[in-house]
Amino acid sequence: MTIPSTGELLRQHRFRAGLTQEDLARRAQVSIRALRYIEQGRVTRPHASSLRRLAVALGLTGDDLAALLGLPAPAGPAPAVPAPAVPAPAVPAPAVPAPAVPAPAKTTPTGTVPAAAVDTGAGTDTNHDPGGQTSREPGRDRDRVPTAASPPHDPGPDAGLRVRILGPLSASLDGRPAGIESAMLRGLLGVLALQQGRTVPVTEIIDVLWGDEPPRTCRQLVHGYVAALRRLLEPERKRRAPATRLRRTAGGYRIELSRDELDLAAVDDFLARARRARRAGDPDTAREALAAAWIRWRDPVLVDAGPRLREHPAAVALAAKRVSIALDHADLALAQGRCAEAAGPLRVIAADEPLHEGVAARLMVALAGCGQQAAALELFETVRARLDAELGVEPGRELREAHLRVLRGHVPAATSPDAAMPDATSPDATSPGAAPAVAVPDAVPAAPVPAVPVAPAQLPPDVAGFTGRDGYLRQLDELLPGGGAAGTVVISTIDGMGGVGKTALAVHWAHRVRDRFPDGQLYVNLHGYAPGPVRPIDALTGFLVALGVPADDVPDDLDQAAALYRSRLAGRRVLVLLDNAARSDQVRPLLPGTTGSLALVTSRHHLPGLIARDGARQFTLDALAPDEAVALLRRMLGESRVDAEPAATARLAGLCAYLPLALRIVAANLIARPRHRIADHVARLEAGNRLAGLAVDGDDDTAVRAAFDLSYAALPEPQQRMFRCLGLVPGPDVTPGAAAALAGTSPVEAGALLSRLADRHLADEHTPGRYAVHDLLRLYAGELADRQDGADRRRCALARLAEHYLDRAVPAARLLYPHVLYLPCTLSRSSDPDPFSGAEEALSWLDAERRNLVATVVQLGRHDHRRAAWQLADALQGFFRVRTATADWQVVNDAALAAAEAEADPAAQAAAHLGLGTLHDFHTRFDEAARHYTRSAALAREAGWTHCHAVALNNLARIHWVDGRPLDTIDLLTQALTLHRQAGRVAGEAVTLANLGVAHGEVARAAAGTGERVGHLRHAAGYLTRALDLHRAIGDRRNEADTLRILAATRRDAGEHAEALPLAERALRLAQETGDARFEAIAWSTIGTVRARLGAAEDALNCHDRALGAAREIGDRQLEAQTLVDLAGTLALLGRPERAARRAREALDIAAGIGSRPLERQARASLDAIAGSADSTDPATAARADPASRPAPAPHGHPVHHPDPGTHTGGNRSAEHRLARPRVRHDRKSLGRYVVRPAER
């Protein structure tokens, strides 16, 4: 006859009992999968403990029991069946043998059950199914050895009453079910057992049993149920004897169970053991005790009860306790690298609590530590989707941080092979050979744990790929004993904006020096900018427990706790890292009190209180240097990838603004796309929303924006509003005055708000009174402004900023350049009071605000403030010419022209074309200059703006002169002179007269050897003398200087050397006083030519050297060519023809390169004369080789007098002299815009 297999027998008995696999698995407390495998024969040798639990759940006895267990059929009371022996764990301990004498049989409703079926030996934990049958504890399928995790009150054999609420509700008497089958009796027992030892009001019992619709006789029914439950729990109590288990009290009932009678007591004993071990610094014992507690409580409280009982506050509190056991165990296991052990309980809890972020976070880290990164990331996505679908929220900080740890690989590395703890979902929990990771003994008293000195090691893992910061690391090293800080309590703060790498630097340095602090390293993230920052008392509690103080002994009072903390640190060398602090008072209680320890604090803003009161040293962390940023990318992406695209890598670092967080994020995204080019990623960042691109793919909270959000959320509302205004600043920085205009507040209030933002590193006071914003913060502030302030409010803010700049730029222009031609609408503006005390202050303001003014002009033109755009550009013309800021000059004129064309305003267009023509003239792009001058003249005539028309003709005349057409030049200048006189413009008339003098001098040069030469020289001198008188009359000292210089050259060419020298020297002094480096250079050259003719050879050469050096310093090629021509003439005059020819050829090359025909003619004439006189020693012949001795030299290559701006009116020479340094290159006399004093002034 075929003997049925174990699986077949089991299936037959299950069918006979009318149970499903799920029912039997639940009763026996084995997994459904394990039961299924046994029945299917896939597990051929099931564990004896599993079979015992199944037999008990099925109520098997006698032959049926023996057959299932594979034992001989009993002839009478069956002998005890010993549990199978298993190897001891790694640390040997004496085995605990099972008793050899069989226990007496017990009577059950179905017959006599051998003791072996319900009692497998001394010290074996038992558990019960809902029917009351006894079973071994799930997963406890081997004999145990004593460990420190043994509970002192383990129930042992099932003598007497046993009530179990951890899992299915059950009660048994001497190992037999107590017969509590009624739902009402089970509900009553459950609510009482949940609150063992406490009175449960009758009203509460009624609510659990019937809910909102109790029957009218509910109180009488409760009393009846209590009586019935007493009979079942105390069957031997006599009828009128007082109840010992279920007592009536005032208002309700109370159940009284000893510690051995309620399963929760054993768990509490293990938890107490874990707490004691943690206080003593014994994490291994604590972990084992928590594992033992978990094994006894793997199912939810009262899992088979109704919803009202499961949702009772006491049940909810116990459910939270169960979760905390799994979390605490996981923390200890993960800290020891036992990732698989941590994962087992976490999987069970995650199934019961799918929205618990703390559970999911730890499970992610555990899975990643086991090498299952994909599973960890999938878990994150699953939880995030459920949070969004069911609660409408995003993952919190803890889950996001775990996600980031997994992405970065900052997870515990397995330190030893560990098996997973048994969990209820594992198919192998009861299969052959399975063993729990933690061996928990039964009923073995634990030896007392001696107190040991505790050296906490709480530092987070060191930062992978840490790069740069060498200077900061050296400064931090100086804090160590022997580095200048010995004998003091060292406190240091590292502050900086969010994402700049404060924590990374602090943690990295702490790991570098941790051996210098042998008594431990404490760490806490104070979450200063998150909702609900860590309170000092909570941080102190954590530190004290880590230092060996029992949690129950930590004072509740902050001062007392801080005193105890300082006492614990006294005489010890401990490093305390306080991360992400928000305030000094959050930090101060956590500081050590005696020498030897060191506190390092990181914060997003300055903590001046710590510096003032506690002597802290402050380190302010900036973004990485460009080479450090590239090095960080190289370290993360690999050398080959970066070396293949060095330019793209550098650009990528720049787009991240060299912020470490941003760099790590883009590197993480590129690592996830190994086939993508760095240049493609750069293109995406440049084309799209850069802040949106600086986020880890699939995790927007791991982003630069998320770091900024925390800083912004911590600001009071006025500071938030000011921060948003910073996103509207067009230029690189802002003053309190400009910020006040944007925000619509006072400069004093704006300054205070900017100062507070700087304290929080949301702005940077890079110069006293000037605040800049990091590139990415500026983008972030702009996004906030777009989102929160609306288009109208932003438009009004920009209009106020334009008014602010115009109210200062226009008065500065009037004060510094009173003779520049301005648009009538610009001159009509008034500023009261005058914002500047003098010329020096006005020029300093323009220099400081230059880049802001340029950016504002561009921004105004783009945002429908076109009139303000061209007015501001108009006010800056003189300044840009004097400072020769040609790039900025180009930008503002282009923006002004676009704005004027958009509004079809002819006068504004004429002004912009005139400015662009002058700029092209400056760069010797004469064809472009002529085009703009011609267009300006036509538009000015259309607008009826006579002054601009005259200036445009004057400047166009200069182009004709450069082209070698002096007579055409004179014609245009004559027209311009007529227009100026008609309009009554004295300044314009003076400039044009001087230019006519230059033009007649050029004609005289061309007429050398003819009778016309003298006449043209006489005309030239007359024009220049009248121009000089007018310049002096209107106080245009700068143009007075150049006119004097031209007049001196004219006298020199007429042979009047003695009269020429004082004129040239006076011109030099005026050029120096007005700060005109260009006019000063040509004055030195003219003095050199005059002194050479007076016989002072060395003085002459010194003057030429100074002129040539100045021309080259300011980068004016035309001026350089003119000074070389003059030097060549002097060298020829002094009898040095070879050097003279060399200098003349240099001048010819430059003149040809820039297309200046007059200078080409002068250089060629000089070379011809030098060649003709090379063999002659006759002074008269040598003199003919000097172009300066020939008719009417052009003024440094410019025959037309340029109306460059004067710096101020006469009578303020001391201020002029101060403004002369540093020297700047002024515009050439290219007939740019006339410098005109406003008529109303």
UniProtKB/TrEMBL annotation:
Low complexity composition bias: residue spans: 103-125, 1173-1189
Alphabetical UniProt keywords: DNA-binding, Transcription, Transcription regulation
HTH cro/C1-type domain span: 10-65
Domain of life: Bacteria
SUPFAM superfamilies referenced in this protein's UniProt entry, alphabetically: C-terminal effector domain of the bipartite response regulators (SSF46894), lambda repressor-like DNA-binding domains (SSF47413), P-loop containing nucleoside triphosphate hydrolases (SSF52540), TPR-like (SSF48452)
Alphabetized GO MF terms: ADP binding; DNA binding
Classification via Pfam families: BTAD (PF03704), HTH_31 (PF13560), TPR_12 (PF13424)
GO biological process terms held by the UniProt record: phosphorelay signal transduction system; regulation of DNA-templated transcription
InterPro entries: AfsR-DnrI-RedD_regulator, BTAD, Cro/C1-type_HTH, Lambda_DNA-bd_dom_sf, OmpR/PhoB-type_DNA-bd, P-loop_NTPase, Sig_transdc_resp-reg_C-effctor, TPR-like_helical_dom_sf
Gene3D superfamilies in the cross-refs: lambda repressor-like DNA-binding domains, P-loop containing nucleotide triphosphate hydrolases, Tetratricopeptide repeat domain, Winged helix-like DNA-binding domain superfamily/Winged helix DNA-binding domain
Keyword rRNA-binding recorded: no
Region of interest (Disordered), ranges: 102-159, 413-437, 1171-1241
Similarity annotation: Belongs to the AfsR/DnrI/RedD regulatory family.
This protein's name: SARP family transcriptional regulator
